[in-house]
Design brief:
This protein is mainly alpha-helical. It has one domain. It contains eight helices and no strands. It is globular.
Amino acid sequence: MHAQDDERAAAILRRRANGLLALDDALAELADADCTAAIAGLIAERVKLRVDVVSHALDAQTDEPISVMCRVAGFRINSYSALLRMRRRQNRGTESAPAYALTFFSDLSPASAERLLQRMALEPGERRT
């Protein structure tokens, strides 16, 4: 099962690298396939954080950290929504309603998200790469 997930993620990322898949579509497909590790790598690369920091945000019970990271990474609401669905399937982010998370994401300006991300990156054990 794990090898199949890795193959699916690799195929999606290969299509993205070859210019056959837009960034948002790649995130949505990875989320629909529950490819958490690949999502963490994709986001980490875009926001210049360590993969384990992004993985921790993906695994968190609150949606705010991953919302901030996705906003800074330049994702749109549709791909972020797919990520929220994945998190709910994994019983993550259950401390708030999906509508709240979507509103938080929509209302968050890229500049504000960048400031929040910088603060998150400065927390102990979460240094930028």
